[in-house]
Each structure stands twice: as C-alpha cells, then as structure tokens.
Amino acid sequence: MNTSPQPDPRDRPARLSVGVVGAGRVGPALAASLRLAGHRPVAVSAVSAASRGRAGQLLPDVPVVAPAEVLERAELVLLTVPDDALPGLVAGLAETGAVRPGQLLVHTSGRYGAKVLDPALRAGALPLALHPAMTFTGTPVDVQRLAGCSFGVTAPEELRLAAEALVIEMGGEPEWIAEESRPLYHAALALGANHLVTLVAQSLELLRTAGVGAPDRMLGPLLGAALDNALRSGDAALTGPVARGDAGTVSAHVTELRRHAPQTVAGYLAMARATADRALAHGLLKPELAEDLLEVLADGTTGTTGETGTTGDGEGNPR
Fold it and tell me: How far apart are CA 148 and CA 133, in angstroms?
C-alpha cells in the first residue's frame, strides 16, 4: 500500500495569482475552484453588499479592491460582469493602462467570444472566453456543480491549450465554440435553461391554485423523467395532448388558464404551437388531427373536437 503523502496542488508548476473583477454569482465560484487546483486568488472587486457577501463566503481572506488594483495584483484575471457591461469595462481597463502584457484576461460571457477583449489584446493581454454552461446560486454549491460542467471556449488558436487546461482544472469539460457562433450558442442555452425556470415556476403556481399541497414533489419526478427522455430521444420524447392532437383538451386548458392565470396564456399557446410543429414534422401528430388543434391554437378560445372530460386517449395513456 502506498503511504506516501499526496502532492499539494499548490506545488504544481505554473500556479497563477487570480483576480476577479465583478463578484456576481460566477466569479467567486470560478476563483474558488481554481484555488482547489492550486492557484492563488489574490484580489476581488465588489461593490454591492450582496457581492461583498459572496466574495467573503467563497473567497475568505481575499482583499476587496478596485478593478484596476485587481489587474495590478493578478496574473489571471476573471472578468465576470454582465454582458452589456463587458465591452465598456475592457475598453476602460485598456485605456487606463491597467492591462499588463502577458496577463491572462478571461471573460465568462456566453454572448461574446474573444474579440470583445481586443482592446486588452492590443495592450499585450492574452484573451480567453470561458463560459460555464451552468446556472449559479452564488453559494459554495456552485463549486461542486462545476464538476463535469461544459464550458464554451473561444480563444486564439495559440491559446487554445491554455484555455482548455484552465477549464479542466476547474473540473469542467471544454467545448470549442467558434467566434461567430457565440450568439447562437448562448441563445440555445438561454432558450433551454432560462425559459425552463419560467415554465416550472408557472407550473408550480398553477398547481397551487388547483389545490396541490406539494407541487414541487409532484413535478420533480415528472420533469426529471421528461428532461431525461428529451436528452436521450429528442423530439421522439414528445407526449401530451398537443403531440396527440387532442384539440378538446387543449381548448379546455386555454379556457382554464384565461380564467385563473391569464398571464400564462400567451406562453402556453406559443409553446403549444412550437410543439405541434415539431410533432407534425416528426410524424407524431397525425395530420388529420392537426387541423382542429391548430384552429384552437390560432384563436386560443374553443375547439371543435373531443370531450374535455375524458381521462385517456383510447390506448390506456393518461391525458
């Protein structure tokens, strides 16, 4: 049995001093994960009380300083600010001489690739775009969730290995995204993750209105199975009244939503139309059933077929 001591990550070569500009939910978690890999967080900028709290929780004993001082202290700087603020921040840091030649400058925006860092590149910095495809809470659980998380990576070809190495050190899986594909890549993630939260929150509210005492317990297994099926099978996993062409049931849904939660009707109709289109294209929705269904979805009021009080589809499947 080998009883020799395990090597300390801090003894690995090329350990870097790390700074964070913008202590939102992402930056402190990434810096904390880099600390686990042996790198040294040395400075963080934070303005609000919430951001200072996150920095204190995830990066204890790391001083809170101004952004320019973060760059002065760190060899690797994480720019973790909102997308719309990133271009101005980069330009300002470059114009004021805060950027040093040879400094690794990393942003975590999904929208932008490496070109948004061009002002810093001209000042001699090494630009990397490393976007974690993960939702963050601003708590220590985020560090654990980075294990196996995919990162959208964009960087100059000569820095590709360095970018991928940093992602792996944070426990992630690098996925190369071309510069011109970044907006589409980010739109895909937002469509899936951000809109999912809205849909689930609406579903929880409707179940409470319907008298369900533990809507989270009811939805958990259902949504988990639906997500697993969708990831495994794509459109073949579509089910429910829209995919079956149950126009009467869909009409009843719309009527109830108008009565109890009118703010959800537009979203329900939009998603139902998209579901119907995909079900038709993949042969799941029979064309002869689609006409009445699409009529309901067009006006969102009444349907012409089916009885809304039935509990099955004739094949033993619940509606």
Answer: 10
In this structure, what token pair is assigned to residue 138? Answer: 């601003």
What is the value of pTM for the model shown?
Answer: 0.83
Contact yes or no for 297/285 (Cβ under 8 A): no
Tokens of 35: 């600390």
Angle at 163 between CA 193 and CA 232, to 5 degrees: 35
CB 140 within 8 A of CB 27: no
Q: Name the band, by pLDDT with cuts 50, 70 and 90, for residue 299.
A: confident
State the Cα–Cα distance between residues 203 and 153, nearest whole angstrom.
Answer: 34
Q: What gap in Å lies between CA 294 and CA 302, rounded to an integer?
A: 11
> Cα(261)–Cα(203) distance, rounded to whole angstroms?
11
Sequence-distant (≥ 6) Cβ neighbours of residue 77 within 8 angstroms: 18, 19, 20, 21, 70, 71, 103, 104, 105, 106
What are the start-end ranges of the H helices in 171-246?
Answer: 182-189, 195-209, 215-233, 241-244
Residues in Cβ contact with 238 at an 8 Å cutoff, skipping those fewer than 6 apart: 275, 278, 279, 282, 284
Res. 309: pLDDT tops 90: no
Q: Are the C-beta atoms of residues 172 and 146 closer than 8 Å to each other?
A: yes
Report which DSSP code applies to 168.
H
Half-sphere exposure of residue 174, counting CA atoms within 13 Å on the CB side?
Answer: 19
**Token digits for 49?**
């009380």
Q: 130-133 contacts: CB < 8 A, separation 24 or more?
A: 130/106, 130/163, 130/166, 130/167, 131/177, 131/186, 132/26, 132/30, 132/108, 132/170, 132/172, 133/175, 133/189
Mean pLDDT of 52-68: 95
Cβ–Cβ < 8 Å for 80, 26: yes
Q: Which of 49-53, 196-200, 223-227, 313-317 has the lowest mean pLDDT?
A: 313-317
Closest CA to 34 of 68, 63, 1, 58: 58
